[in-house]
Amino acid sequence: MMNSLKIFPKRIEILTVLFLLISYAFYSQQKPNIIYINIDDLGYTDLSCYGSTFYETPNIDKLATKGIKFTNAYASASNCAPSRASLFSGMYSPRHGIYTVNSSERGKSEHRKLIPTPNKTILHDSIITIAETLKKIGYTTASIGKWHLGEDPKSQGFDINIAGTHAGHPTSYFSPYNNKELKNGPKGEYLTDRLTNEAISFLNTYKNTPFFLYMTYYTVHTPIQGKKELIEKYQHKKVTENHNNPNYAAMVEAMDFNVGKIINTLEKLNLTKNTLIIFTSDNGGLHTVSKQTPLKHGKGSYYEGGTRVPLIISWKNKIKPRLTTETPVNNIDFYPTFLDITNIPPHKKQVLDGISLAPILFETGKIKKRPLFWHFPIYLQAEKGFNTNTGRDPYFRTRPGTTMRYGKWKLHHYFEHNEIELYNLEKDISEENNLAKSKPTLTAKLLKKMNSWRKKTNAPVPSQLNPSYKKQD
User: Fold this and answer.
1) pLDDT tens digits for range 397-420
2) Where along the chain do its domains lie?
3) Tell me, what's the pLDDT at 346?
4) Which of 20, 36, 123, 253 shows the smallest number of beta carbons within 10 Å?
5) Beta carbons within 8 Å of 184's beta carbon, 6+ residues apart
6) What is the pLDDT of residue 384?
7) Check whether domain 31-363 has CATH 3.90.180.10, yes or no
8) Within 13 A of 317's CA, how many CA atoms are on the CB side?
9) What pLDDT is attached to residue 55?
10) Whole-number Å distance between alpha carbons of 136 and 154
11) Interior/surface letters 9-40, b for 16+ CB within 10 angstroms, e for the rest
12) Which residues of the chain have pLDDT under 50?
């Protein structure tokens, strides 16, 4: 009797441990895996499922048929760092202070009428990121590829960092890479292939635990370097007026091939039923490499070509496949969406400017009409080969200002000369017919809404004159 009493507590301990392990395993299985595939500088028109007849993207096209393709999706900024900062913080740029890459004084001083707002280049550690939030509830978090918000994404909630530094682009897409966070492969190894292999290894290792994979390819950012055999393929293919660069086309196809490898791996590991897949870009395409017509201009500009991006979301048996949705969304919406699908309560100490996309994804309702904002109190010089017919002037891709989309209306406000532009995107997606003067009441109403938002977010509006400025003819 005494012996059985001594053993009984041990049995209870064993059963308790087994119960906890089983409960944890069950709970872990209920958490959806999340893969966020972020392509660098991929334009809205740069996929065949978004209209290109030159670039070939069969794997991404197939993904689009299995989920939802968004036709009015936006990045929160028109270049890399601020867009990524808003993605991970869930906040518009005025709240985190990252507006551009490096200095806000880009371009010749004599062309800048105003002293721009100073720019931050690192996402502050006080900001609670998506990765930190998911890590706290048991997710294994990995960043594979470009980071660009500091020296190491592991300081912002990632367990694993492969190839992520503060650098905005690689020195070469062929090994040796000269990347301190990525060992060189065999000479001539292609970076996009290598990052995919690293991702496949991660998926095989962590297939039995909930994971968040930020698959952040460096491609298709400059330098424009495709594989020789693919370049030759596109050199023999009929070009179009807007898409005619075989080297860039080779990069797009290699990217598509590797996205296909990741999806195939998920299928082999039987993970697709519990994995939310998001495919998108961090900003519009570089105009001098791939024109985004009918959208105006491209990366660095706050016309549609600079901020509208492709977006495809898929989740087998959870998201009903359908052709498209025209609802305007922004990458700041992913943070609250992830909170929603993982049943995490909203943050008490951090404002989130976006909204959950769950009603669209799961067809449980509609998203209320709301304004989307872009604020850039900075200067960004024109890139080499810039076409003055597609931007505001020959000197800058953007000058200090704010833009806003509300329904079909797009309002621009530029600070140097208090210039206002208003476009009806349903009838004028190319933003050619400025309606500000012909619709003064509507313009005033929208400007009031914009001013209210700037006040709410403490958005800086530069007004100090630059003594070096020389008025241009």
Assistant:
1) 999 999 999 999 999 999 999 999
2) 31-363
3) 85
4) 20
5) 175, 176, 177
6) 75
7) no
8) 7
9) 98
10) 14
11) eeeeeeeeeeeeeeeeeeeeeebbbbbbbbbb
12) 1-8, 15-29
